[in-house]
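Entry 12.
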Amino acid sequence: MINLLSLKLDRPLILAPMDGYTNIPLRLIIKETGADLMFTEFVNSDAVIYENKKTLDKIRILSEERPVAIQLFGKKPGNMAEAAKIIEQAGPELIDINFGCPAPTVSGHGSGSAILKDLPLLSRICESVVQAVKIPVSAKTRLGWDDSSINIFQTAKIFEESGISMMTLHPRTKVQKFKGISDWEYIKMLKRELKIPLIGNGDIVKPEDAVRMFEYTDCDGVMIGREAVKNPWIFRQIKDLLRIGTYEADINFEERKRLCIRHYDLSVQYLGERKGTLEMRKLYQNYFRNVPGVKNLKKRIFESEEPAEIKKMLEDFNPEIDDLSEIEQVE
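Predicted 3D structure (C-alpha cells):
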C-alpha cells in the first residue's frame, strides 16, 4: 500500500517516464486503459529554471489524468531544489528524481545514472529536493553503474535517510541499458529491507509478468514503460488477470481503431496539428500490429499532414481492402 499525503494507491500499475512518449495525449490514453499513476516525460532542472517552453509544456498536467508524478533530472543540488519548487507549482502529486536514465543525453552529461558513481552527490540532491518542497519526493534508480559497482543497497539507504518517500528500481546497471534480463531478485531482496514503498520495473512484456513480479518480489507497485507504448491495453489486461484470472489477449480490430483515432484526436488537440500529426507516425504500427493492410495505411497517412484527411483514412481503414491493395502493388 502506498500512502503519501494525497497519493493513496494499493498495488498500483504505473506508467513509466519516457522522453518523447509520455506526453499528455499518451497519458490520457493510458489513464483510460487502467493505469493508476502517470509519470510525465523527464525534464532537465536547468531547462525548468530558465523556463524553456518545450520543457514547461512537458510539466503541464490535466485534472482528468491525475494522479501524476513529474520526473526531474540534473546534477546540481541547488538547481534541482530550485527546479523542484517550480515544478511543485504545476500541482503534481509527486516529484520523482531520475537516477536511472542511461541515455547519453542524460548520463553523458553527469545526470541520471551517472550520479550512481557519486553517492555523496546523490545524497545532497535528495536532501535538497526533499527540503525544497512540501509534496512527496520519490526516486527511480538502477543497480549501479556496472557489474563491478553495484551499490543499490547503499543507494536505498540514502533514499530513506534523506527523506525520499518511495523508490522505483529497474534492476539493470547503467552499462546494461536495456540488454540482458532485469534481475528481479534485487527487487525481492530490497523489499525485505526497505521501510518506504518499492516499485518494481523492468521486463514487463505481458500481463503475466506483472502478476509474477508482484508475487515473486512482494513489491508495492509495478511500473511499465516500453510495453505500455507497444500495447496501451496492458494495464487493463493486468487488472483483469489479477481480478478474474483471465484477460482479453487479442484486442479486436474495432477497439484498436477506436483508440488509435482517439489518440490522434488528442495528439492534434494538445500538440497542435503539425506536431500532433508527426508524433502519431511512430504509434500506428503499435495500434495495428499484425493487422493486414497496415503497411498501405501508413504509406497513405505519411503522405498527408491534413488532420481531417488522416482521420478519414483511419476511420475508413479496412484490413481486407488495404491488404488486397498491398498484394496488388507487389504483383
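Annotation: Residues 326-331 have pLDDT under 50 and may be disordered. The CA atoms of residues 1 and 10 lie 5 Å apart.
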